[in-house]
Design a protein that fits this description.
Layout (H helix, E strand, L loop, with lengths): L15 H12 L4 E4 L6 H10 L1 H7 L6 E7 L8 H16 L6 H17 L2 H17 L3 E7 L10 H13 L5 E6 L3 H4 L8 H5 L1 E4 L5 H14 L6 H11 L3 H11 L9 H9 L2 H12 L3 H11 L6 H6 L1 H5 L3 E4 L2 E4 L2 H12 L11 H12 L5 E2 H8 L10 H17 L5 E5 L3 E5 L2
Parallel strand pairs: 1-4, 1-5, 2-3, 3-4
Antiparallel strand pairs: 6-7, 8-10, 9-10
Helix pairs in contact: 4-5, 4-6, 5-6, 10-12, 14-18, 19-21
Length: about 425
């Protein structure tokens, strides 16, 4: 990793308690699930935790023995079981390259991966992961696999997958451990897992809340240099209050403010720009749609200033667990004014767009499709075209699908001759039937 990157400029005390707790679970070989609001900053925190040797040395007494294997499921083109295991094996190979593992052992693990690619056999791939992990442990290392964005597999999760994961741990006499990230506990991710009470025993749920003000300030002052945004101390505090510890809100907010033509002299300027930004609104919508109907109703109730009963809170405890609702002086508050404003729009139904006119992003998307009429437009190219300013942040599948859904609806409202087709696992195609 480039040592000039923002991750190398974050002080060791960044999210100190979270890092300390995570290191404790890993040291005790306990598998955990880090659960948080979608795009709250878990990935950023884990990049900081995994990739910096000084961080590892700071939190682990036996730091040289630990081998971290990050498997980011955003790298999956197809969110299915076979690609999942292939990606896991590939990341095992990647993780050993700069380690002190014997070169002969490295070659054996590389060979297992190449053979699995040739055979394209699921059972052989899983067995190759098992043998590779065993060889790593025999070399004196303690492997931890980080399954980042594991919730991307939610439509493919089965008890058998978890049986295979747990089988790997048993095979290594529990010297292998896992860290998953998800916006939901496993039992809530998939109907097939809903009745599997053993998952909560095997994998401890740890809730990752929006960052505290001190940690948010660290990130703000690092990233505002990247986006060339100048704010006074008072405006910094107001900006932090608006994003309230949500990593994606903060980055999108800085991107929105990165415009030499706009003048930022007072709080109202920042508020107007952020509340009017289409990318921030889409992020709010993604958070909203990740919730159950009951959780949404509770947020509407809170935004209206109505009291929430203990029974209602118990049924929607997720909102408090992940820090989406914060209790101050006995009063429930929605965590970010940006998200709170979005919820209030829902209450008044101002958020419902019945018009047929394209927004800026929708028009960029449609124009790109039209330029490539009758051709498959790949998802990564769509991101480059529609969100060129935010490609490094990573644009979720949900955001792309939601944008496509809105364009499809508006084409019908416009009585357009065009039809938008979805090409599974790849992207979209604009045609004239």
């Amino acid at each position: 990793m480039d040592k000039t990157s923002v991750l190398y400029k974050q002080p060791l005390i960044f999210r100190y308690q979270d890092a300390k707790d995570l290191a404790g679970h890993i040291s005790n070989r306990r598998s955990i699930v880090l659960i948080g609001i979608t795009r709250v900053g878990i990935g950023n925190f884990l990049s900081f935790f995994i990739n910096r040797k000084d961080v590892v040395q700071n939190y682990f007494q036996d730091s040289d023995k630990h081998l971290f294997i990050p498997v980011n499921l955003n790298d999956l083109i197809e969110c299915d079981i076979a690609p999942f295991w292939t990606l896991t094996l590939k990341r095992v190979v990647d993780s050993i390259e700069n380690s002190n593992i014997n070169e002969g052992v490295k070659n054996e693990i590389r060979g297992l991966f190449l053979e699995s690619i040739q055979l394209q056999d699921l059972f052989f791939t899983i067995d190759s992961v098992r043998l590779s992990i065993k060889k790593i442990i025999e070399e004196g290392f303690l492997p931890t696999i980080f399954f980042i964005k594991f919730d991307r597999l939610k439509n493919a999760l089965t008890p058998q997958l978890f049986a295979n994961l747990e089988g790997l741990r048993e095979f290594t006499h529990y010297q292998l451990t896992y860290v998953f990230t998800s916006f939901l506990p496993f039992n809530d991710l998939s109907p097939e897992l809903n009745k599997n009470s053993s998952l909560s025993i095997l994998y401890k749920n740890i809730y990752f809340k929006p960052s505290a003000e001190d940690d948010s300030l660290i990130l703000l002052r690092l990233y505002k240099k990247r986006y060339e945004v100048k704010l006074t101390d008072d405006l910094e505090k107001f900006f932090l209050k608006l994003v309230d510890g949500h990593f994606q809100y903060a980055q999108l907010g800085l991107i929105a403010l990165h415009n030499p033509e706009i003048k930022i002299s007072k709080q109202e300027d920042i508020k107007r720009i952020l509340l009017g930004d289409e990318r921030i609104r889409l992020q709010s919508e993604e958070i909203w749609e990740s919730l159950t109907t009951n959780e949404q109703k509770i947020l509407v109730k809170i935004s209206s200033g109505n009291r929430v009963s203990k029974q209602e809170k118990d049924k929607a405890s997720y909102l408090w667990d992940v820090g989406m609702v914060i209790q101050r002086s006995g009063i429930n508050n929605i965590f970010s004014p940006l998200f709170s404003y979005f919820v209030k729009e829902r209450v008044t139904e101002e958020a419902k767009d019945s018009g047929a006119e394209f927004s800026k992003k929708e028009l960029l998307f449609f124009d790109y499709l039209k330029e490539n009429e009758n051709q498959i437009c790949e998802r990564d190219k769509i991101v480059e075209t529609v969100w060129p300013e935010a490609t490094e942040l990573g644009i979720s599948d949900w955001a792309i699908d939601k944008l496509a859904g809105r364009v499809r609806t508006k084409l019908k409202l416009q009585k357009s001759n065009f039809e938008l087709q979805t090409v599974k696992t790849r992207g979209f195609k604009l045609i004239k039937p």
